[in-house]
Amino acid sequence: LERSSTLGELGEFGLIARVTAERHQPAATLLGPGDDAAVVAAADGRVVACTDVLVEGVHFRLDWSTAEQVGRKAAAANLADIASMGARPTALLAAVAAPQDLPAEWLEGLASGLAAEAAAVGAAVVGGDTTRGELLTVTVTALGDLEGREPVTRSGAKPGDVLALAGRIGWAAGGLNVLSRGFRSPGALVGAYRRPQPPYAAGRDAALMGVRAMIDVSDGLLADVGHIADDSGVAIDVDTTALPVPEPMRNAAEALGADARNWLLSGGEDHALAAAFPPDVLLPEGWRRIGTVSEGAGVTVDGHRWTGPTGWDHFVKE
Amino acid sequence: LERSSTLGELGEFGLIARVTAERHQPAATLLGPGDDAAVVAAADGRVVACTDVLVEGVHFRLDWSTAEQVGRKAAAANLADIASMGARPTALLAAVAAPQDLPAEWLEGLASGLAAEAAAVGAAVVGGDTTRGELLTVTVTALGDLEGREPVTRSGAKPGDVLALAGRIGWAAGGLNVLSRGFRSPGALVGAYRRPQPPYAAGRDAALMGVRAMIDVSDGLLADVGHIADDSGVAIDVDTTALPVPEPMRNAAEALGADARNWLLSGGEDHALAAAFPPDVLLPEGWRRIGTVSEGAGVTVDGHRWTGPTGWDHFVKE
Q1: What letter would DSSP give residue A85?
Q2: Which residue positions in chain A have pLDDT lower than 70?
Q3: How would you classify the pairing of strands A162-166 and A272-277?
C-alpha cells in the first residue's frame, strides 16, 4: 500500500484481502483471503462461530488507541467468545466500514492487529470486506474448533459448583476511566484498555477439566455471571475477598475519586473468563475461586444484593 | 418486543438473539442464538465463510427499503457468495450497529428478513451482536457446506471455456436509478433493487457439473468477470447479443435518459452468478452462455475494449 493513500483513492476492492493475503496462514486455512469466501477446516464436523462489532466513539477512539490496538481488541473480543465455549479459535473474518479519507495505513494497522492477535492463538484472518461508511465500524467474526468436545454453554451450572475466574477484570475499565479524564497513565491500566489480554488457553483447559458453564466477561463480571445464573437457573454469590483491588488500580481510583470495586465488578473489555466448576474439580492453571453457586436465582455480592452498576450496555446512555 | 420501544430503551443484550431465538433452526444448527457463540455442523470437516457489510446511505436507505428488505438484501449478498463457491449455505450471523432512537421493530423486521432469506436456502440465523452506533450498519457472516466437493474459486478458468451467467443482471441497478430520480416505478426494477433474488441453487448445480471458476456478480458483470480473468490468467469476452435488454429495463432507461446497457454490464446487487465452464459441458438449468474465455488478459465486450463503467466501488465517489 502507498503510505499517503486514503481508502477513497485506493478503492475498496480486496483491501482487507490485500493486507492479509501475504500473511502466514495456518494449516486450518484451506482457502485464504481473496475469493468470494474462505474455506476453513472444521475437523470434528462442527464449527463454533460468533460475531462482534466495534464502533468508533463507542468502543474505541482514534486518539486513544492505535489502529493495531483496535485490531487486537476487535479480534480479542471474538477470540475470547470462542475460548469461552471451550473451543480453539481457527479463523477470523473482518468487515470494515470506513470514511473515505481514512488513511489506508490505518487499515493496514488494523489488519496487522487482527492478524497478530489471531496468530497468538494459532488462527488467522481468512477474509473480509471493506466499504465506505462515514462512521468507522469494525465487525469481526471468529470461528473455532471444539476438538471433539461438547460446547460449554452458560446453562450448565449446578448448585454446589464453584464460581471461578481466569484472567484480569477491572483493568480495562480503569484504563478507560483514566483516558476519559484526560490522563495517559498509569500505563498498566491504559495498556489494559488499549490491548486486552484474554486468557485464551484457560477456556480450553477448563473444558478439558469438565467445567459446567462458562462465559466471556465482556459486559462486566456481575452482568455476565448473571447470564450464567439466569441460563442455568441457579443463584451465584461473588466473594469479593477473592477479588482484592490491585495496587495500581487502587491508586488510580483514589486519584480520580472513583471506586475501584466498581471497575472490578462491572468493567468489561478485559475479556476474562468466568465459569462454574464442579465442587471437586482441581481448578486448572490460571483459574481462581471467586464465589459459589447455589439453588435460587440472581447474583449477590458477599451474600448481599448489589446496588452498584452491573455492567456495560452499549445502548444505554451513561 | 414492545412495539413502541427504541433500542436505547430496550438495551442491547441479546437483541438479535431474542428476535431470532424462537425461529426454526435446521438440523445443522447444533447450538443456536443466545450463548457466547453458536455451533454449526460442518459435515465434511470444512466450513465456507464470508462476510459483507451494508451501510445506511451507501447500500440502503430507510425510505427506499423496509427493514425486512434490508435484512433479505444483507443475507442475499452473503448467501450468494457461499453459492458462488459451489457450497450450500448453513448459517448466518448478524452484527448490527444502530442509533439509539431506532425503533426496536425495525430491528425485528431486519431479523425477519435475515431469517426468511436464510430459510429459503435451508439455513438460519444462529447468532449476532447489537450495539449503539450513530450510523446504521448491518454486517452479515454466512457459513456454508461444500458437501465433500472442492471449493470453486475465481482462478480456474481456462482458454476455450464458456462464460455463463445464472440469474438477473441490471435490474437492481435500474431500480436504484429509478429510486434515485425520485420515482417508485416500474415495480419490476424497484422490487429487484429492494429484494435481490440470487440463483442460489445454480451455484451448487454448477459445481456438480464441473464448473471451473465462479463469482458472485455483486460489483457489476464486467468488474466481477474481470476478477475471474485476472485470477485465472485468461482473457474473457462478453457477448452482448446474449444479453438483450429486457423490455421494462429499456423503457425505464429511455424515460430516465440512461443507458440500460450500462445497468446490465456494470450494475451489481442482483447477485447473479458468473462462471467459466469447460466447453463440452451441458450448462445446468438456469445458466446461459454469455461469452468466451481465451488466452490473454482482461475483459472485452463484443471483442472490443469497454469504455463505459465497469462496476461499483463503494469507496470511489461518483
Answers
A1: T
A2: 1-4, 10-22, 311-318
A3: antiparallel
Candidates A9, A93, A140, A315, partner chain B, best to mutate (most B CBs within 10 A): A315
SS3 B304: strand
Phi, psi of A54 (to 5 degrees): -115, 130
Q: How far is CA B47 from the centre of its chain?
A: 19
Indicate yes or no: CB of B95 within 8 angstroms of CB of A51.
Answer: yes
Residue in chain A lying closest to B28 (CA): A46
B247 min Cα distance to partner chain A (Å): 31
CA of B152 vs chain A CAs: smallest distance (Å): 9
**Residue B113, C-alpha cell as written in the block:** 428478513
Ordered per-residue pLDDT tens for chain B, 318 residues: 445 577 777 665 556 666 666 678 899 999 999 899 999 999 999 999 999 999 999 999 999 999 999 999 999 999 999 999 999 999 999 999 999 999 989 999 999 999 999 999 999 999 999 999 999 999 999 999 999 999 999 999 999 999 999 999 999 999 999 999 999 999 999 999 999 999 999 999 999 999 999 999 998 999 999 999 999 999 999 999 999 999 999 999 999 999 999 999 999 899 999 999 999 999 999 999 999 999 999 999 999 988 777 765 544 433
| β-sheet bridge partners, residue B17 | none
Of B11, B48, B316, the CB nearest to A316: B11
Amino acid at A29: T
Provide the number of CB pairs (under 8 Å) joining chain A to chain B: 251
β-partners of residue A128 are A94
What residues are paired with A272 via a beta bridge?
A217
Q: How many CB atoms lie within 10 A of CB B247?
A: 10
| Interface test mutation site (partner A, options B106, B139, B313, B318, max chain A beta carbons within 10 A) | B139
What is the C-alpha to C-alpha distance for residues B251 and B246, in angstroms, rounded to an integer? 9
Q: Which three cell numbers stand for residue B64?
A: 427506499
Residue with C-alpha cell 430496550? B10
Query: If you compute the radius of gyration of chain B from its CA atoms, what whole number of angstroms results?
Result: 20
Residue B35 in contact with partner chain A when CB distance is under 8 A: yes
CB contact under 8 A, A50 and B34: no
Please tell me the distance from the alpha carbon of residue B18 to that of residue A8, in angstroms, as a whole number: 37
Alpha-helical runs (H) found in A161-246 = 171-180, 187-194, 200-208, 221-232
Does the CB of B136 have a partner CB in chain A at under 8 Å?
no
pTM here is 0.94
Q: What is the ipTM of this complex?
A: 0.93
Residues A168 and B263: their CA atoms lie apart, in Å, by 55
Cα angle at A164 between A159 and A166, to 5 degrees? 155
Contact B141 A93 (CB under 8 A): yes
Q: Which member of A37, A55, A84 has the closest CB to residue B85?
A: A37
